[in-house]
């Protein structure tokens, strides 16, 4: 089977599997800045993929098998532990392919397409994009003619077809993991809708927002609060707290693929956004560096410092040489030497 899944979570976690020391010295083709590596470590910690010392957890070993974003992988494994992976697998597949909604350029066709899309959303309550994607996946797959169904509902058949393939691949990976003796098994009492939302909260709690002044919401990401425009099938007034999959930045900022939630579902998770310093996750790397590496680093830093100091001294000399007082002093010395030469020549004559 052709592997069409993007290798995304592996890029986060596989170098970490070699140890926190290794990821900072990993021989990247285009080495990222250290702050980006530290932010990636923080995201993995928030998903429970690594512990406070940067070591991969057992859950992280499960997560690395999935070529998905960390948050989505965490939500999928939580649903699998509760025996409800059939809900999250189609959603994960739909979020791994291109946008499934067709947006015609002609106003009349665009209106028809939006009406069909609203109908699909309304069937699942009208205010949860994740369940809307689930509904589209299930309806199309159950249809006698998926191609015709997509045409009637203004859905990209190519994207849906890719999602079917991705879902099959994810299902195979999960089935293999569930055969392991230490795969987590949990119980949940409540509706499937509530179960889905709480699984999504576990994976997307760092992407949480609250309604603010009608169509504007405040998004809390990495301690910063940004105001963005929120659009979801004219259901803004029903929203309070939401989670979202990603952010689209154009002339304005939009959150996409959102789900309404209760604050109680994320309040115990939110402290993880700031309970640990990103440098703490990599401090073990600095502690485990060998003395030889420290000596090389110190020599390198000393050379840099000496070079900078030499350049600074040269710059100071150049500035001193070119300032007004220095120019006047040089002119005076020149005139004095000229007068002395002229005096000597007069005596000779």
UniProtKB/TrEMBL annotation:
InterPro entries named among the record's database cross-references: DEAD-box_helicase_OB_fold, HA2_WH, Helicase-assoc_dom, P-loop_NTPase
Keyword ATP-binding: yes
Recorded GO MF terms: 3'-5' RNA helicase activity; ATP binding; RNA binding
Gene3D superfamilies linked to this entry: 1.20.120.1080
Domain Helicase-associated: 39-134
Keywords tagged on the record: ATP-binding, Helicase, Hydrolase, Nucleotide-binding
Stated name of the protein: Putative ATP-dependent RNA helicase DHX40
Organism from which the protein derives: Acipenser ruthenus (Sterlet sturgeon)
Upper classification of the organism: Eukaryota, Metazoa, Chordata, Craniata, Vertebrata
């Amino acid at each position: 089977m052709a592997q069409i899944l993007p290798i995304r979570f592996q890029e986060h976690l596989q170098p970490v599997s070699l140890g926190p020391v290794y990821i900072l010295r990993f021989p990247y083709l285009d080495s990222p800045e250290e702050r980006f590596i530290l932010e990636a470590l923080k995201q993995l910690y928030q998903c429970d993929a690594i512990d406070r010392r940067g070591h991969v957890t057992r859950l992280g070993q499960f997560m690395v098998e999935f070529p998905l974003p960390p948050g989505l992988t965490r939500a999928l494994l939580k649903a699998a532990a509760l025996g409800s992976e059939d809900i999250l697998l189609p959603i994960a597949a739909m979020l791994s392919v291109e946008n499934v909604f067709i947006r015609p350029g002609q106003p009349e066709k665009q209106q028809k397409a939006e009406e069909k899309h609203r109908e699909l959303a309304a069937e699942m309550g009208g205010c949860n994009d994740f369940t809307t994607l689930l509904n589209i996946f299930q309806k199309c797959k159950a249809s006698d003619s998926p191609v015709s169904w997509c045409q009637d509902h203004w859905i990209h058949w190519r994207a849906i077809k890719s999602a079917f393939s991705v879902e099959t691949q994810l299902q195979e990976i999960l089935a293999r993991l569930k055969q392991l003796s230490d795969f987590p098994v949990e119980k949940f009492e409540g509706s499937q809708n509530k179960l889905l939302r709480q699984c999504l909260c576990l994976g997307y709690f760092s992407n949480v927002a609250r309604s603010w002044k009608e169509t504007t919401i405040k998004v809390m990401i990495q301690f910063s609060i940004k105001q963005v425009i929120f659009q979801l099938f004219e259901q803004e007034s029903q929203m309070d707290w939401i989670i979202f999959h990603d952010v689209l930045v154009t002339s304005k900022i939009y959150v996409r693929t959102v789900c309404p939630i209760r604050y109680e579902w994320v309040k115990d998770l939110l402290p993880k956004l700031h309970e640990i310093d990103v440098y703490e996750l990599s401090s073990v790397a600095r502690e485990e560096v060998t003395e030889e590496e420290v000596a090389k680093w110190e020599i390198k830093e000393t050379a840099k410092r000496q070079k900078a100091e030499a350049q600074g001294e040269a710059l100071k000399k150049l500035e001193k040489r070119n300032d007004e007082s220095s120019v006047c002093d040089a002119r005076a010395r020149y005139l004095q030497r000229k007068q002395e030469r002229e005096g000597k020549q007069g005596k000779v004559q």
